[in-house]
Design brief:
single chain, mainly alpha, Transcription Regulator spoIIAA, 2 domains, 6-stranded mixed beta sheet, two-stranded antiparallel sheet, 23 helices, disordered C terminus
Length: about 550
């Protein structure tokens, strides 16, 4: 089969997954299904032209749909105005993506640590899954929060709708049974099977909620003006949408590319995501990104080029035009089952179990999970960001100074605590701050270094290695100069090693010429100088 033939088959297979997922995610967000379908078509077409990965599929995602739902729940807009507000926030998302790409902020893709992001994603998957149970049970829980709704369902089994439960169970069983056949568009197949069942059994008359009609005829309807309060409300949701979309998208794109030897650039992907979201906003579509489940389906279909993404968009558009009248009969319980299956990868606790085994960062991940479950999607996202920065600052500002020794007869100096076979140079203490020096940790680090030097009254010579510090801010510069002056007053000879050029430049501008005359490019050179000088205590050694 030719590459183009493979791409056509792969694109059609992906379109089969995108259709039910788009409709399902529109239900999470609380917007009409056609706006998710518009977004999927726009996202795939833009990425086919501008993207770099042949596997990534740009379409609505469950996480962005949950944040969009949180935005809309606090507003009570007019029917026509609701999608205008969605278009505005998606346009803001696109602009932020474009700005980040132009400013080359792709390196900030790791602004949220992986454990925190995994915890947030795990909590979000739990939250979205729990929200499906009222639909599956067929029981009304209007006005109740997520946990209150679950409690009502569990304590009132007599109000469950048997038909709705059977639909969900059948769909779940089918999708689970076909998970080992990735080439099969199982979600589309299950809809093709459930629609006739819904019509023949007249499930709507039996109390089973259905999708209802999908109007593809118009995009921009009538709407009223947006107030400043509404505009400011939707604008504050754009940054968290950008963060979660890029974290999810870049994680998916990078993972797929690494497995298949593709070259992708974070800044280029930022700009592509920006244009894709602006295109979606022009169609009043939902926010779009590279979701894991769509990417996994694309990888399984093994496309050869990005032409498959264009085929998926065209295939989805044709499906909508040909069969949109039949979509009205899809039971909501079936879509809830599809959502749960799509989230199984995010509900997998193995990443958290790994953190537990590593005895590291588990509290961070669980904290992010709890933030989503108990504070909601937006506040949970903000809590995850704050948690990441708090951990970063705590680790960076915690003083840790290593005492080094020579490893055998080599030129290598290592931490004496970790390498008991290493030996400290006779009469010389070698120290190395383990963190880069900056305003938040410079003073406590130099205080700790001073304490270690003075702890042994016989220590008269010392070397401080600054290899971890790439540059100095003014606070760290002043702390270094004060540290040096304090030791010299105590008649302790001090030399420096492994200074980066930017640190040397800062010292030269900040009155540190004296330190530069006592600086070597390696610890071994500094030790050699002191050993040659013997016991002399020359301040300019």
């Amino acid at each position: 089969m030719t590459n183009k033939g493979r791409d056509i088959l792969a694109g059609l297979s992906v379109a089969g997954l995108m259709l039910p997922e788009a409709i399902a995610y529109s239900g999470i967000a609380g917007v009409p299904p056609q706006h998710a379908l518009y977004a999927a078509v726009a996202g795939c077409l833009v990425y086919a032209v501008l993207g770099r990965s042949r596997f990534a599929i740009i379409s609505p995602t469950s996480s962005s749909a949950a944040i969009l739902a949180a935005m809309l729940v606090a507003l009570v807009p007019e029917p026509g105005q609701k999608m205008l507000l969605v278009a505005v926030v998606v346009f803001f998302v696109g602009l932020l993506f474009l700005a980040a790409g132009m400013l080359k902020l792709g390196a900030l893709s790791s602004v949220i640590s992986r454990p925190v992001l995994r915890g947030f994603t795990f909590g979000l998957a739990i939250l979205i899954t729990l929200k499906q149970f009222p639909v599956i049970s067929g029981m009304s829980t209007t006005g109740a929060g997520t946990f209150e709704a679950i409690w009502r369902i569990m304590t009132n089994p007599g109000q469950w709708n048997t038909y709705s439960l059977l639909v969900a169970a059948a769909v779940l069983a089918f999708l689970l049974a076909t998970r080992r056949i990735p080439q099969l568009p199982a979600s589309l197949v299950v809809l093709a099977l459930i629609i006739p069942v819904s019509i023949l059994l007249n499930l709507q008359e039996k109390g089973v909620a259905i999708v209802g009609s999908i109007d593809l005829s118009g995009i921009w309807g009538s709407f009223t003006a947006i107030s400043f309060d509404e505009l400011s409300h939707v604008a504050r949701f754009a940054p968290p949408l950008v963060l979660i979309l890029f974290a999810e998208s870049w994680g998916t794109i990078r993972g797929l590319s690494l497995r298949h030897g593709e070259n992708v650039d974070a800044n280029s992907e930022l700009k592509t995501l920006g244009i894709a979201n602006i295109a979606s906003a022009a169609l009043q579509g939902m926010p779009v990104g590279a979701g894991f489940s769509a990417g996994a389906a694309s990888e399984a279909a093994n496309p050869q080029t990005r032409f498959a993404s264009a085929v998926a968009a065209v295939g989805l558009a044709i499906l909508c035009l040909v069969a949109s009248t039949w979509f009205a009969y899809i039971p909501q319980a079936a879509l809830s089952a599809i959502i749960i299956i799509a989230l199984l990868h995010a509900l997998d606790p193995s990443p958290l179990i790994r953190l537990w085994r590593l005895k590291h960062d588990l509290i961070l991940a669980l904290g992010a999970t709890a933030g989503v479950l108990f504070f909601g999607v937006l506040d949970g996202m903000l809590a995850a960001i704050v948690l990441s920065f708090a951990v970063f600052l705590r680790r960076l500002s915690s003083p840790l100074v290593m005492v080094l020794g020579r490893l055998g007869s080599s030129h290598n100096f290592v931490d004496l605590k970790r390498h008991p076979d290493a030996e400290a140079p006779a009469g010389i203490m070698v120290l190395r701050p383990a963190q880069p020096l900056f305003f938040g940790n410079a003073e406590p680090i130099f205080a700790d270094t001073t304490r270690l030097i003075l702890a042994n009254s016989d220590t008269k010579t010392a070397i401080v290695s600054l290899e971890e510090t790439i540059e100095l801010d003014t606070t760290a510069l002043d702390a270094l100069l004060e540290f040096d002056a304090n030791l010299r007053k105590r008649n302790i000879t001090i030399r420096y090693a492994r200074m980066h050029d930017a640190v040397r430049d800062m010292l030269a501008r900040g009155g540190g010429d004296d330190l530069l005359r006592r600086a070597n490019y390696s610890v071994d050179d500094a030790v050699t100088v002191l050993e040659k000088k013997g016991s002399r205590h020359d301040a300019y050694l």
